[in-house]
Amino acid sequence: NRVKTPLVRGRLMKLWREKRETMSPVQAWQSIQNDAAARASYTKKRGSGGFVRATWD
């Protein structure tokens, strides 16, 4: 089975889109990972579903 569209945690996608408005992709990811509160906001929800479809871009 080929994955046509990736599924990403909704909270992580929201954080990513907010950071991407002003940062490069790598800087946005680094910013999320270095902020303990932001990282905890999506890691504590593991196992609860909440996935959204994303594009490969």
Structure, described:
This protein starts with 6 loop residues before the first strand and ends with a strand. The protein is flat and about 35 Å long. The protein has a two-stranded antiparallel sheet with strand order 1-2. It has a domain at 7-45. The chain has 57 residues and is mainly alpha-helical. It is built from three helices and two strands; from the N terminus they run βαααβ.
Give me the Rg, rounded: 12 Å
**Beta strands, count:** 2
Q: On the 0-100 scale, what is the average pLDDT?
A: 89
Percent of residues in helices comes to: 40-55%
Strand line-up in the sheet with most strands: 1-2
Category by helix and strand content = mainly alpha
Helical stretch tally: 3
Poorly predicted segments: none
Question: Roughly what fraction of the amino acids lie in strands?
Answer: 5-15%
> What form results from the Cα inertia axes?
flat
Q: What order do the SSEs take from the amino end to the carboxyl end, as H and E?
A: EHHHE
Describe the main β-sheet briefly. Answer: 2 strands, antiparallel
Task: Report how far apart the termini are.
Answer: 21 Å
Structural descriptors:
57 residues, mainly alpha, single chain, 51% helix, 2 strands, two-stranded antiparallel ribbon, 3 helices
Architecture blueprint of SSEs:
Elements: E1 7-9, H1 10-20, H2 25-34, H3 36-43, E2 51-53
In short:
The protein has 3 helices and 2 strands.
